Amino acid sequence: MNATTLIVFVAGVLLGAIPAFEAPFVQSLALTCLMYAGLAVSWSMFSGPTRYLSLATSAFFGLGAYCTAWGLGKLPWPAVVMLGGVAAMVFAFLIGLVTLKLRGAYFAVITYGLGELVKHTITHIEKTYFRTVGRVLTETPSSTTVYWTVLAIAALAVWTYVAFGRSRWGHALRGIGMDEERTATLGVNPMRVKLVGFCLSSWFAGALGAAMAVRWTYIDPHTVFNPFIVFQTVLISMVGGPLSVAGPLVGAVGFSLLSEWLRLSLPYLYMIILGVLLIASVLYLPDGIAGYDWKKLWRRRKPEEKP
Amino acid sequence: MNFYLFLDLVVAGLVTGGLYAVVALGLNLQYGLMRIMNIAHGEFLMLGAYFTYTLVKVTGASPLWFIPPMMVVLFLLGLLLHRLVFRRLAATSPNAEAMEARSLIVGFGLMFIAQNVAQLIWGGGMSGQPYLDEPVKFGEVTVAANRLLVLVVVAAASLALVLVLKKTLLGKAVRGMLQAPLGAMLVGIDTRKLHPACFGLGLALAGLAGGLLSMVYELTPAMGEPYTISALIVITLGGLGNIPGAIAGAVLLGLVETFGMYLTSPSLKTLISYGVLVGVLLLRPKGLFAR
Q: Does B286 touch chain A (CB under 8 A)?
């Protein structure tokens, strides 16, 4: 057992004890933190090293949620969550085959477009074949079960980020982010590596969607395929810094606390502040909080202290 | 489908396509010249629509009076935004790809800000200020006068822009920057002045479309989003930086949407647009008219 596994395990056990205190507000806040941590870490797993700006997270999340809507009650809970992840993975594989050839803004726009396409397709299917616009989820598992499920997925995401980043695949992904052609000449098959990374990261978003769907009790395509999910994920990862696992974690905790504080009191102002934060972070912290050289502030101050 | 219905659909498609063209031309300039992937472009259409709407409501005069000053205001807003945000972004981005990705995120930020500011000031959706909505008859074909007006104005605006680009020295400079950014700088084209101006022009064009829309459709803080997506599709269809291509792409998309909606169902509009976008990106990622 190496250090990372140990840290993730200990943190997981400590966080897993929260339901024992029977403080619903704390537990719900922790659940939000964990969901965003899981989404941001899994997003950074692929988009951090490759610099591919994927906006497909909402689609993965929504597909997972719809797996729950269709499968809850028919399948056991762990199977439903697994299935949600697998559905997202299949979708990621299919769109990855064609979109991962593109680069830059084209990739971002097309992943966003495909997500919207899935949303409208599911709306259409539900309307035409099931004569419904949304679904009420009954027989939902207890909130503690949901909490532990999300905790497990988030912990697995953190562990996978570190393990995957250290593996040959992680090095290959970073190489592709720096110079794809040079990496290819070094004997890496860029398409295969990118596809594996993209699918791997999609599983977590799908599984989180499947697990979080039961929190809403009523779901419709506009809630679970909400583009806001991917905006928040990207924001957290970019503000935190997607190049280390600490970045998305710091971002997720800070963001969840900030939004909990602002959303209830000032909903529109909350979105405006979010927009300003997003722009400011892109302009002044291009590598995120975790990627910023904080020691620089220290070094700059030092000469001034001398007489 | 009889002949008159066909003509009706063609006119409707041309009106939609013309609006798309005006919005897409601005975005094409921003993206083609500065690599600014301005996902908030449609938000300036929304602001233009709300400005016009408010002024008409307060004064009761014709909206046409307010569209030119509103475009000037948006142009100045564009200069300010470029100065505050995009200039620094361009200076700190290591390459064009980073610039695209980072401007996309900035665009999302601007979108949050613009939509929620509009929501705070004007509240949720409200009906437009109908202007000139009596029908005009051409033989058997009936068209609402305001739609005809929209068509004429957008056609004139697109044509004027194309002429300026083709015939004037200023237009030549802009075309030079589109073709070879570095070369343009080497032959003495002042990109530091022309970039902000083109960015502002893009906003003003989006505002023009918004001002025209306020006479025809309902206003909501999110009304700009579909136009941003359409503009992206149009740019993809026409090819980056290709101005005549973008106009052709816009008209094509307008017609495809109108006929597609008639033949299937109006609820499938978004599905059709995204279908076209995905199809084009996969089959002809360099645009329909790429050589």
A: no
